[in-house]
Amino acid sequence: MRISVIGAGYLGATHAAALASWSHNVVGIDVDPARVAQLGAAVAPFHEPGFDELLRDGVRAGRLTFSTDLSAVSDADVHFLCVGTPQLDSGHGADLGALWQAVEALAPHLRRGALVVGKSTVPVGTASLVQERLDELVAPGHGVEVAWNPEFLREAHAVEDSLRPDRLVLGVASDAAEARLREVYAPVLRDGIRAVRTDLQTAELAKASANVMLASRISLVNMLAEVCEVADADIERLTEILGLDARIGSRYLSPGIGFGGGCLPKDLRAFASRAAELGVDSASELLGAVDSVNIHQRQRAVDLTVRLLDGHPRGRNVAVLGAAFKADSDDVRDSPALAVATSIARLGACVRVFDPQAARHLRDRIDLDTADSAESACAAAEVTLVLTEWPEFAQLDPATLGRVVARRVVVDGRLVLDPARWSRAGWQVHAFGRGETTPRAASRKAG
User: Fold this and answer.
1) Domains and CATH numbers, the chain
2) Active site includes 263?
């Protein structure tokens, strides 16, 4: 099948490469010539495990091409809209400017009976508006139909989620549209992946609702962690107990400095904004609290660091391990780690950051120094913060790191360190929900 993917960002490029791996002929369209040239040369513009190989295989096989020229899509039967829908500058709602630009530009190139499939996360009701606009723009009788097929990609697992999704949502208004989408996804459907057919509105709500649920769960466990600290309880044992309840489960029950990235924060706020427009006022109150707890976690990390610096951060050396919003990604959009590092730097501290993939995005920052290793980031540091859950940070040797820091004080913002191991090496370890583990306390436990 000949397919176009409009928007070759993180979502679009990954989706295009996955489609090509299923032997479809795919053209990816983007307005950025540099990105198009990079992708066309089979060079990944972002870090995502497995994407380099998937991209290279599609390009080399001749099934995957990229262009800035929309006329290249004129022979496609299915068009996926994968443009970004970022948060509005006002902080409320989604910016659909790129989506409408894509619809307007695509319309003249749609052939008779084409299917336009939205994958971007949009406010409920958008798909119907897209259909109305295409009906106005496309010649009568061409039968162009709109469907919505939301993405559920997790950064650092996007290739796996594309090739082996846990479900497919087919938001369609006709049997013909469903049949076309089932043809697109035939390889995964043969593997037994469940496809749920629904209406356009429910499909639009699927991704945003999933992110609202996940964000709420993260904020809830972070609230529980704060209660544990005050009550001298253990959040790790508590979450272990909660996770054994089949109604709750163990996923997304790890406390820390909160969620971030390009999806959860903006989708949470856009959902609340749209719900308020629809008259569901309770959404703003509940989801506003979820958002507030999340931002509070970042401030808690800043406040703890200042306290560990005796209330005087100016001129003090602070090491930050992690800048990406999650491990196995170089994405720093709304990154809690970067927000904490920046806030501490604004208080006058000398902050040096190391991240295995994301540090290259910080080179133009004048408020942060970047390092090429964890050890160099920690040189002469009075407080060390672990803010992204990279596996290599959990494997760091606390004795080796202890020889380069000025003070053996660490804040484990993601609960990735073994507190007993670090304490035995002379470190004072602080973690949300666990409180403080001192060398003396660790020695008593070991004895």
Assistant:
1) 2-198 (3.40.50.720), 208-293 (1.10.1040.10), 297-446 (3.40.50.720)
2) yes
